[in-house]
Design a protein that fits this description.
Length: 233
C-alpha cells in the first residue's frame, strides 16, 4: 500500500502491529526511446506490487540519483554522491524516528550503489533498525531470466521496456544494438560518452514480446516480496 493513500493515523495504527516499510529510489536520466523516469517508475512499481499483498507501506520514490555520465543527454538530472547519501541518511533517520525498524530500499538505478555502503554505516549507528538495499533488476532470479532471454541486455534495452515505461507515439528501433564498450565508456566525459553510446541503449534488443518482459517482471516482484518477508535477523 502506498503511503500516499494513507493518513498519519493509519500509519500510527500500522506501526502498532508491524515495523516494515519500503523506500524506492530511482533516477531521472536518459533511457534512449523510453521515459526519462524509467528507473523511478520501475523502482516504485516493483515495490508497490511486492508489498501490496503483505500490507506493507511504500513511500514515494526518490526520483533523482547519481548519474553524472549522462549529463550530455537533455532531461537527465544528477545529484552529487554526497548529496544523495545525505538525503538517504536523512530519510532513514526520519523512518527510524517514526518507529520503522525494517526498511527495504528498492533501488532502480545502478549509479546509486554508494547508498549500500551508506546504509551499512547508518545501521552501525542505529543497531535497533535493519536496512537492506535491493537492486531489483539484478537480483539473482531476475537477472538469470534476463540473461537466459538475451545475454547482452543492458541499459535502455527490452528489460526496461515495459508497458508503463513506453512513451505514446514513440516507436522503438527494430533489432538489437551491439554492447557498448564499458571499459572505454567509464573514463569518458559526458559529451564523449554520449558520442559512444549514441541513442543511449547500451546493448541488446530494443524490445521483446510482452510475454518475455512481463515474465521477468513477475520474477522481480516475487524476489522483492521474499525480501520483505525476511528473515531480517
Amino acid at each position: 500500500m502506498k503511503i500516499a493513500d494513507m493518513n498519519w493515523m493509519q500509519v500510527e495504527a500500522y506501526l502498532r502491529r508491524d515495523d516494515r516499510c519500503l523506500l524506492p529510489i530511482g533516477c531521472t536520466e536518459q533511457h534512449a526511446y523510453l521515459s526519462l523516469a524509467v528507473d523511478a517508475i520501475l523502482a516504485e512499481r516493483v515495490a508497490v506490487e511486492a508489498a501490496e499483498p503483505l500490507g506493507v507501506p511504500v513511500f514515494p520514490v526518490l526520483p533523482f540519483g547519481i548519474t553524472p555520465g549522462f549529463m550530455a543527454y537533455p532531461g537527465t538530472v544528477t545529484l552529487k554522491a554526497d548529496t544523495m547519501l545525505r538525503v538517504v541518511q536523512d530519510l532513514l533517520d526520519s523512518l527510524d524516528h517514526q518507529g520503522f525498524r525494517r526498511i527495504l530500499i528498492v533501488n532502480g538505478h545502478g549509479g546509486n550503489q554508494p547508498v549500500a555502503a551508506a546504509a551499512l554505516e547508518w545501521m552501525a549507528a542505529h543497531p535497533r533498525t535493519r536496512v537492506r538495499l535491493h537492486n531489483w533488476w539484478n537480483a539473482p532470479k531476475t537477472m538469470a531470466h534476463v540473461k537466459a532471454v538475451d545475454p547482452h541486455s543492458a541499459h535502455a534495452s527490452w528489460m526496461e521496456n515495459l508497458p508503463w515505461t513506453r512513451l505514446p507515439g514513440v516507436a522503438q528501433p527494430e533489432g538489437r544494438k551491439p554492447p557498448v564498450d564499458y571499459q572505454r565508456y567509464a573514463v569518458l566525459s559526458p559529451a564523449a560518452a554520449r558520442e559512444l553510446a549514441g541513442d543511449g541503449n547500451f546493448g541488446g534488443a530494443y524490445e521483446r514480446p510482452d510475454e518475455d518482459v512481463l515474465a521477468m517482471w513477475r520474477i522481480a516482484v516475487e524476489e522483492t516480496r521474499a525480501l520483505i518477508d525476511g528473515p531480517w535477523a
